Amino acid sequence: MYKKPAALALLVAAACVGNSAQAADVTGWFVDGGVGSAHYKATYEGLSGTESDHGFQINGGWRSHFIGVEGGYADLGSVSENDGVGDSASLSGKGWTLGLNGHFNPTDRWYISARAGFFFWKLDGHLTLADGTSGAGSENGMNGYAGLGTGFDIDRHWSVGVNFDYYNINKHHVNIDTKMYSVNAEYRF
């Protein structure tokens, strides 16, 4: 599941709290967004495959000093496969997030961020066979997400950085681990 990335995010957050001078007061409302590359690894009853696409995320929330709550939306892109004889399939994942968010400043400008929570996902699948038969379906569920990031606080309001986020989709023998590497910007009100 998502226990390892969540544990890693919490350990990094704890280490930062112990060593942080927390130079910038980041208390208040914030919005952030990022774009990057989403890497799928899917398994189903012994079969597995990997693929990547572009993805994005947008979040908003409230933070007190260095820890707070966030809610957002993540679009993990779409992946597709063609067998060369006319059969094709595609899969896209997206969903809403709700969790905790931390922003820690080991120095005046450098920050480390951590986040973890619930991922309320939706998968959409499409299949087209060589004979023209096609079908589509979707599945919903809830699993988890976690992430780590680092970057630069430009001033009290703006930050830019890079993030690694992990989204887990697991239901009915289908397990899709999605890792997203993104460039992010945050605005604090």
Sum this structure up briefly.
The chain is mainly β and about 190 residues long.
Task: Give your account of this protein's structure.
- The model is unreliable at 10-23 (pLDDT under 50).
- It is built from 1 helix and 8 strands; from the N terminus they run αββββββββ.
- An 8-stranded antiparallel beta barrel has the order 1-2-3-4-5-6-7-8.
- It has a single domain (3-188), classed as Porin (Beta Barrel).
- The chain has one helix at 3-19, and strands at residues 28-44, 47-64, 67-82, 88-104, 110-128, 134-153, 158-171, 174-188.
- It has 189 residues and is mostly beta strands.
Q: Write down the domain tally.
A: 1
C-alpha termini separation: 35 Å
Spatial strand sequence of the major β-sheet: 1-2-3-4-5-6-7-8
Helices and strands: which structural class? mainly beta
| Count of alpha and pi helical runs | 1
Fold topology:
Elements: H1 3-19, E1 28-44, E2 47-64, E3 67-82, E4 88-104, E5 110-128, E6 134-153, E7 158-171, E8 174-188
Antiparallel strand pairs: 1-2, 1-8, 2-3, 3-4, 4-5, 5-6, 6-7, 7-8
Keywords:
189 residues, mainly beta, Porin, 1 helix, 72% strand, elongated
